[in-house]
Amino acid sequence: MRGKKFFKKDDLKGLVFATLVSFSIWIYSVLNSEYSVNIKVPLTIIPPEKHSVSGRIPDKIDVLISAVGWQILNLTLFPKSAVCNVPLEQVESFDERVIITKNDFIKGITLGVNAKILDVSPSSLILEIGRMVEKVVPVEPDISITPRDNFVLVGSPIIRPQYVVIRGRSELVSKIEKWKTMKVMLKDVYKPLQIEVPLSDTLHSQISLNVPKVMVYVDVDLAAEKTIYDVPVIVEGGTLPEGHIITPTRVKAIVRSGVNKLIESDLVFLDAKVKYSELIKDTIGIFVPQIEVPPGMTLVSIDPPYLYHWRVTNSK
Question: What is the model's pTM?
Answer without folding.
Answer: 0.58
